[in-house]
UniProtKB/TrEMBL annotation:
Annotated protein name in UniProt: Ribosome-recycling factor
Superkingdom to which the source organism belongs: Bacteria
Any single GO CC term annotated in Swiss-Prot or TrEMBL for this entry: cytosol
HAMAP family: RRF
Isomerase listed as a keyword: no
Family, as annotated: Belongs to the RRF family.
Ribosome recycling factor domain segment(s): 23-185
Keyword Cytoplasm on entry: yes
Coiled-coil ranges (or none): none
Swiss-Prot/TrEMBL GO biological process terms: cytoplasmic translational termination
Organism field: Paracoccus aminophilus JCM 7686
Length: 187
């Protein structure tokens, strides 16, 4: 193998793990019947002309197992935050109390559990697409190296390395999805 053409598989792996970390954060936002401050993290509010995470316009608290409260600092953003929560797909009906938005977490029924498993599957598919895009970047690096004079054996070696890394990461995404779906369906 020629050392002239090294493909940075460490960088590809780091980027794929980033996609996996992002998936885990999205899964943390899916509620399973218990209140969690992380469930509102992906919600973006149109604040001052740009999308802003809800936890940057107010304080998120979990005062009891079935309640999340968000104390919005700017009164003018309360209605925008409420609208963002309603449109987020969390299936929670926010209640206003001045600048405090209360999110009572209802018990999950069977239908809602199935909906959440579908949302989890969508998140997982997005992660798979991200991993495949990173794989494509790696394969493009290999093609460039081949056109710059990489030996065919080296090309096959690196293509195999990148494909094995991709398969491993997609397997991890699938296992993470299975675990989350089992957690959601658990009564």
């Amino acid at each position: 193998m020629s050392d002239d053409f090294e493909i940075d598989t460490d960088d590809l792996e780091r980027r794929m793990k980033g996609a996996l970390d992002s998936l885990r954060q999205e899964f943390a936002s899916l509620r399973t019947g218990r209140a969690s401050a992380t469930m509102v993290e992906p919600i973006m509010v149109d604040a001052y002309g740009s999308p802003t995470p809800i936890n940057q316009i107010g304080t998120v608290n979990v005062p009891e197992p079935r309640m999340v409260t968000i104390n919005i600092w700017d009164k003018g953003l309360v209605s925008k935050a409420e609208k963002a929560i309603r449109e987020s797909g969390l299936g929670i009906n926010p209640q206003l109390n001045g600048t405090i938005i209360m999110l009572p977490i209802p018990e999950l029924n069977e239908e809602r559990r199935r909906e959440l498993t579908k949302v989890a599957a969508q998140y997982a598919e997005s992660a798979r697409v991200a991993v495949r895009n990173i794989r494509r970047d790696g394969m493009d690096q290999i093609k460039k190296a081949k056109s710059a004079g990489m030996a065919e054996d080296d090309q096959k070696f690196w293509e195999t390395e990148v494909q094995e890394l991709t398969n491993k990461m997609i397997g991890t995404v699938d296992k993470t999805l299975e675990a989350k779906q089992a957690e959601i369906m658990q009564v």
